[in-house]
């Protein structure tokens, strides 16, 4: 049995999956997501244009089609032997789930800002090379204009605008400083083995912020350990070595990262949950969610540099948050008390009892209200 990863080097979420598959040491081949591949493989299997897509050749006629990085990783974890990226202990497991959410759904803000503010020509050439690999470079660049216009135009929905740029950059540099200091003591978030939280951070930090040239120069200058960590987590490796820290330890640097989640991302998730409750009030089970639920005022940035700006209400992160609350709710006794103490210490005491207003599911590769 083997896997086929369909994606592109310029894709944030493809980078996350590629790094994980390499560490897990499973056999996989990679196919570039050209226009022809979208038409022949992705659209017939998934129904809409999205990457990455993984096809698990499991012996069945068509194989198993997987989409969304978390679903892909969880499928491989269930099917393949060997060490897991999920810590066994409650505090580390909960923290890893939160940091996967933070990386996937919040660090996308600096990832998109730096790409389209400082690396636009590089990204456009990369988009063209992916979609039209047989054209000469000049024609590739021109052919990518429409796609680049779509992606660069979407950044305002993330809260990226002239009023928020300084806050975004200050918060990103603060993140780099915290993670850089942590990596002076540990190879990864929770010891010598990468966790699901590491791979959540890897997508934006490698595929956009390191690989894109201008932001890559910034990371190598301000946070060289972070740059080396991203290269190491993404590089081919076959040892499957490493362990999580004993005694369910949460390193001080990880706690600081969790505090950034609590201060920056958690309030937006609470607002999103409120909007979901209103939207879902008259909807039937199984109803697909729209990509956005409207707009709200959100705080972007960290500390004194933070600003309040307009931002789209994006429901997908709540599915990731549901993984956090489901794990929390499955704990009992001392384990449950330990994660409650962690949530309070990181500044998210209300997450200890928080419940989504409705359950969510992924059905037909889209987000929907649970049946």
From TrEMBL:
All residue ranges annotated as the GST N-terminal domain in the record: 5-83
UniProt keyword annotations, A-Z: Transferase
Pfam families the UniProt entry points to: GST_C_2, GST_N_3
Organism: Maricaulis maris
A single GO molecular function term of this UniProt record: transferase activity
Keyword field contains Transferase: yes
InterPro entries: Glutathione-S-Trfase_C_sf, Glutathione_S-Trfase_N, Thioredoxin-like_sf
Protein name per Swiss-Prot or TrEMBL: Glutathione S-transferase
Domain of life: Bacteria
Coiled-coil ranges from the UniProt annotation: none
UniProt keyword Transferase present: yes
